[in-house]
Amino acid sequence: MTMDAEKHRPVGWLAGALVGALFLLLPAILPAAESVSPEVQFCLSCHSNKTLELVLKSGEKRSLYVDVDSFARSVHGDKLRCTDCHGDISTFPHPTRSFKNLREFTLAYYESCKGCHFDNYTKSLDGVHYSILSKGDLRAPLCVDCHGAHDVARPGVPKSRISRTCSRCHQEVYRQYAGSVHGKVLLQDGNVDAPVCADCHRSHDIVDPRTASFRLRTPELCARCHTDEKLMKKYGLSTKVLQTYLRDFHGMTSSFHKSEQIPRSAVTAVCTDCHGVHDILAVKDPRSAVMKVNLVKVCRKCHPNATENFPAAWLSHYEPSPDKAPLVYYVKLFYQIFIPFVILGLLLQILLHVWRVVVNR
Amino acid sequence: MIRFSVRQRCEHLLIMVLFIMLALTGFPQKFYEMGWAQWLIPHLGGIDRVRWLHRLSGILFTLIALLHFGVVLSLAVMKRIELNMVPTKKDFRDAIITLRYYLGFSEEQARFERYDYRQKFEYWGLVLGGNLMIVTGFILYFPTFWTGFLPGEVIPAANVAHSSEGLLAFLVVIIWHIYNAHLNPDVFPFDASIFTGSISEERVEKEHPVEYARLIAKQKELPAEKEVGEKLTQKAKEGETTIKEEKAESSSRKDDSG
Fold first, then answer.
1. Alpha carbon of B46: minimum distance to chain A alpha carbons (Å)
2. Residues paired with residue A55 on neighbouring β-strands, in sequence order
3. Containing H/E element for A54?
4. B25-46 burial: b if 16+ Cβ within 10 Å, else e
């Protein structure tokens, strides 16, 4: 993207003239908000005009109006001057710039943020959004697409705002999320214990969730909350879910696959393969994919020949006990007694033999 | 003297190699959380490769076991060998006599046949343990098939049994078989007869006096009638072979005591 090349093209003169006209009227205009700096007030003498706009080559119109109240309320309201971001427009009349379309206009200013927010900017370079942008897909969101421009507010206030932000592009995912156990309690009950998009996907360095490495990190992601004793106690949920998963065939396989840099012959189930992803439901919900009656359908996703008995091969995150999985429990108990019994018996006979040999000498 | 036939020696060797392979690829799976397992599995080519090796070794182990039972039973049916590994009342008496002797209650020592009670114990331990490993191993290998007619809980139960029985087998080999074949003061440092097939006459006389007496008696019959004598010798040899076979396995199968 070569935005610099566009500088100084003689387009937008009309807008410039308008600005000039308004400049003359400055003394007549009262600043709408006291908290903004004098420089901002100066710019607003023109930019508080709702009709001020720029017509782009594409025919699209870009409003140049800045709502001073919303800017004053924004996190930057008492901190930044206009030229902190619009560093190229420090003189009047403004240097002329030409943009083919609105997207190009946004792209031209998107790197302004990195001057202060360098860490988040750098993180975003590792994210999937930047990666599609760099491949030429200009629909990829930029800072301002999520955070806004003049009205930047704290992204997580309220927490549900984060998911609503993502929903502007990811509508279908949001619809599923809103119906899920996590989405419901957050969006309907305002319970901030529930995760929003960024809790699992992160915010700036969002990894492509379709990659194997992201898949294999799923147990770790879910476990951040689901092994938190205090948090899970509130909802009567077990914190043994990770441990019981990792001890079973799938969990052991996925944890090795995660650490190995070796091509895999097969995929193995992680949390979301059975419980669902954005549409995850409480395990007590009759519609839950892991409800006993539904479980065989889940198993069949990978084990097409699974019969009704098959799901019981998985102990549903329970430790074997006389109530849950008595067969497994008693086989285990048997060996816990039998192994020491046999080994001690053999050791005893060896010791007796050695002793007798010594005595004989 | 020849104690073990070529077949018995091969069986021992193969079972030994496979046992090591199975232990090497099985224990990192049982103890996968341990540091050494986390190191070993990637060094063996990853968990998928380790499982593949374990299953391959298990299949070969199963084939050898089937071959062993097939050959021994058919030879027995043809009366070419006697099943001298079968436990008898004498074995229990011998065990008691030996324990009394070890404890110093009596100076009487048990007089053993071709296989003493410890060797039989080890052989049958291997047979029973090995069969359990084969059955549970194949249950774990094909869970969808088995749950077609068995309850699902059989799978995790087979898992516990397989890994516990494997541990038991390993400990018995490490402790009992290694003691009897290497550390035992009577054979230290190495009882090589299962590899070479031969054993000294003195050892047979000392460790298996009943068998020794029987062999000597047969040899004495030889010169009497040449033809009959030759036949007898051959029979005796065949008999030995059998005996050896079972013995071989017993010692070979390192162990699982069941």
1. 7
2. A61
3. strand A53-55
4. bbbbbbebeeeebeebbbeeeb
Task: Decide if A179 is inside a domain.
Answer: no
In a domain, A196, yes or no: no
Q: Is residue A138 part of a domain?
A: no
A333 in a domain, yes or no? Answer: yes
> Could you say which DSSP state residue A265 is in?
S
Domain of A351, in residue numbers: 326-361
- A297/A357 same-domain check: no
Handedness of CA A295, B163, B123, B6 (dihedral sign): positive
Query: Distance of CA B70 to CAs A357, B1, B76, Å?
Result: 40, 27, 10
Cβ atoms of B1 and B216 within 8 Å: the answer is no
Q: Are residues A38 and A74 in the same domain?
A: yes
Q: Which two tokens stand for residue A215?
A: 């898949």
3-class DSSP assignment, residue A152: coil
Task: Using the Cα atoms of residue B44, residue B47, residue B48 and residue B51 in order, give the sign of their dihedral.
Answer: positive
- Judgement on whether residues A302 and A337 belong to the same structural domain of the protein: no
| Minimum-distance CB partner of A264 among B48, B150, B164 | B48
For B223, the token pair is 């010169």
Cα A268 to Cα B47: distance, rounded to the nearest angstrom:
12
d(CA A313, CA B156): 6
A53 and A100 both lie in a single domain = yes
User: Pick from B47, B164, B184: which is nearest to A257 by CB?
Assistant: B47
A328 contacts in B (CB within 8 Å)? 153, 156-157, 160
This prediction has a pTM of 0.80
Query: Percentage of chain A with pLDDT > 70?
Result: 89
Lowest mean pLDDT among A214-228, A261-275, A311-325: A261-275
Let me know if A8 is exposed, middle or buried by CB neighbors in 10 A (0-12, 13-18, 19+): exposed
C-alpha–C-alpha distance, residues A11 and A58, integer Å? 12
Question: DSSP readout, B18-87?
Answer: HHHHHHHHHHHHHTTTSHHHHHHHHHTT-HHHHHHHHHHHHHHHHHHHHHHHHHHHHHHHTTSS--TTS-
* Residue bearing the bigger pLDDT, A130 or B203: A130
Q: Which of B48, B156, B257 has the CB atom closest to A313's CB atom? A: B156
d(CA B99, CA B108): 10
* Cα end-to-end span (Å), chain A: 94
Question: Residue B136 in contact with residue B158, Cβ under 8 Å?
Answer: yes
Lowest mean pLDDT among A41-55, A313-327, B114-128, B181-195: B181-195
**Closest CA in chain A for residue B164:** A335
User: Nearest residue of A to residue B31 by CA position?
Assistant: A247
Work out the end-to-end distance of chain B between its first and last CA atoms, rounded to an integer number of angstroms: 31
Q: Report d(CA A104, CA A98) in Å as an integer.
A: 9
Topology classification of domain B6-252:
Fumarate Reductase Cytochrome B subunit (1.20.950)
